């Protein structure tokens, strides 16, 4: 998993799999963009207007359905907590 915070653009980008040249991006309407592989599986997301704050927490929960059953990272894990607003 890769996590990148762009301080200038106020974006948080999280990759669950290696970014590849061929991707499909889908806006959710909640200032979140899903990155999918060519098979339609979510391999990452980008949160727009992300402003870290010590007073707020964002919990990211990734489900096996979102990653695809074949993904090695789809086994149950504890949610990861990231500081920020949503």
Looking at this protein, list some descriptive labels:
globular; five-stranded antiparallel beta sheet; two-stranded antiparallel sheet; mainly beta; disordered C terminus; 5% helix; 86 residues
Shape: globular
Low-confidence residue ranges: 69-86
Give the overall pLDDT as a whole number.
74
The total domain count is 1
C-alpha Rg, in Å? 13 Å
Q: What is the beta-strand fraction?
A: 35-45%
Helix run count: 1
List the strand order in the largest sheet: 1-2-5-4-3
Instruction: Give the end-to-end Cα distance, rounded to a whole number of Å.
Output: 20 Å
Q: Spell out the helices and strands N to C.
A: EEEEEEHE
Global structural class? mainly beta
Major sheet attributes: 5 strands, antiparallel
Number of DSSP strand runs: 7
- Estimated helix fraction: under 10%
